[in-house]
UniProtKB/TrEMBL annotation:
The protein's name in its UniProt record: DUF7847 domain-containing protein
Pfam family, one: DUF7847
Residue span, DUF7847 domain: 174-335
Annotated region described as Disordered, given as residue ranges: 366-387
Species of the source: [Kitasatospora] papulosa
């Protein structure tokens, strides 16, 4: 398929972004701007269009996006909090005995085994919970964006139904995408382990030095390949929701769409991630300060030899404020990058598959401003164009 399907190399027509194609400004020489029924113009998108579309979607559909995120992450936080409380009530005696040991005493297996078992159960529950919650969010954001591009309203119940219908294929796509980075991450962990052992022993342990060197060199060697593969498959969750693809087919679809535009997608994705990280960090700061005051007041009332339960109760205010800050930060860091990724998916289909006229027809607006009005190629493997 021809690049941009008749739209040329610029953002609009053959002119560079912000220029006037076809001989003059809007209305001159018969040129009219492409329709914009929703948050983006139905034409190849520039950086400003992508970021502006993401912010516009957050502004217009904040109830659906943030409501879904707050319900999911808030519910996950409450679930894990309840699980920790139940686990603590079950192993509190064992924990108190382990904490009360002197530095030269060894904990008995009757105390260690219940603590390890509780930790494993909590860890598995946390993995399952965050997988389902992340899958629902990765499905919900494109579901909202699908209507935002067309300028149509969307109810919270519809977002939930669409997200739940695609949650397991999305989880599969996210897991397969995450496997791309597993080798560099493991190597970084090896390097960290070697560094910690070396610092603790301070005797030039050869094994720690080998682990550190192997981890650093291996991470540097495999990191660029992992980043390249990550960008190649980063559009997979959007393909699952927009086109109903399975996890493996979505990865192939993402690689097909990213082909020829890797650096641009990498730069925009990196910028969106940095913006979300900075915003999330800024949001966490006031919650941390708010949690300091009840934390200081609570610890000031502790005895000289407080129990574990007393410490937890004294720090509960700080813990609650920190969890709230982390939840709000997670909502931002999940929603905004996924909106940007979803818009990049739409942009690539507009550029490579002439999706603009199809979107204009779906939105019920005249397909004006499209120089190419020929037949639209099927989006993936033949059949009727999907949206």
């Amino acid at each position: 398929m021809a690049q941009d399907a008749g739209w040329g190399g610029g953002a609009y027509g053959g002119a560079p972004y912000g220029g006037y194609p076809f001989g003059g400004p809007p209305g001159w020489g018969g040129w009219v701007p492409p329709p914009k029924p929703g948050v983006i113009p139905l034409a190849p998108l520039g950086l400003g269009d992508v970021l502006g579309g993401a912010f516009s979607t957050m502004g217009r559909y904040w109830k659906q996006l943030f409501g879904m995120a707050a319900a999911l992450y808030g519910g996950a936080t409450l679930l894990m909090g309840a699980a920790v409380a139940v686990a603590y009530s079950a192993v509190s005696d064992h924990l108190d005995r382990v904490v009360a040991l002197d530095h030269d005493e060894t904990a008995s297996s009757t105390d260690v085994v219940p603590l390890v078992t509780a930790g494993i159960v909590l860890g598995l529950l946390g993995i399952v919970t965050i997988s389902v919650v992340s899958g629902l969010m990765y499905a919900a954001v494109p579901a909202v964006l699908q209507e935002a591009v067309l300028g149509r309203p969307v109810a919270f119940s519809m977002v939930w139904r669409r997200a739940w219908a695609r949650v397991f294929p999305v989880i599969g796509a996210v897991i397969l995408t995450s496997l791309v980075a597993i080798v560099p991450v493991l190597l970084v962990m090896v390097a960290f382990f070697g560094l910690v052992v070396g610092l603790l022993t301070m005797d030039g342990d050869r094994g720690a030095a080998v682990a550190l060197s192997l981890g650093v060199v291996g991470a540097l060697a495999t990191g660029p390949l992992a980043v390249w593969l990550w960008i190649k498959v980063c559009l997979a969750p959007a393909a699952v929701v927009f086109e109903g693809q399975g996890p493996v087919a979505a990865l192939r679809r993402s690689a097909q769409l990213v082909k020829g535009d890797w650096w641009r997608i990498f730069g925009i994705t990196l910028l969106a991630g940095l913006m979300a990280a900075v915003a999330g960090y800024i949001v966490q700061i006031p919650f941390s300060f708010l949690g300091l005051f009840p934390g200081m007041l609570g610890t000031a009332s502790l005895d000289e030899d407080p129990s574990t339960a007393a410490v937890v109760v004294a720090m509960s205010g700080y813990l609650v404020a920190t969890l709230l800050g982390m939840t709000v930060s997670q909502i931002i860091s999940t929603t905004f990058p996924q909106l940007v990724t979803g818009l990049l998916y739409v942009d690539r289909r507009i550029r490579t598959e002439n999706l603009g006229p199809v979107l204009a027809e779906a939105a019920g607006v005249p397909p004006q401003g499209f120089p190419h009005q020929g037949p639209v190629p099927p989006p993936y493997g033949g059949g009727t164009p999907q949206w």
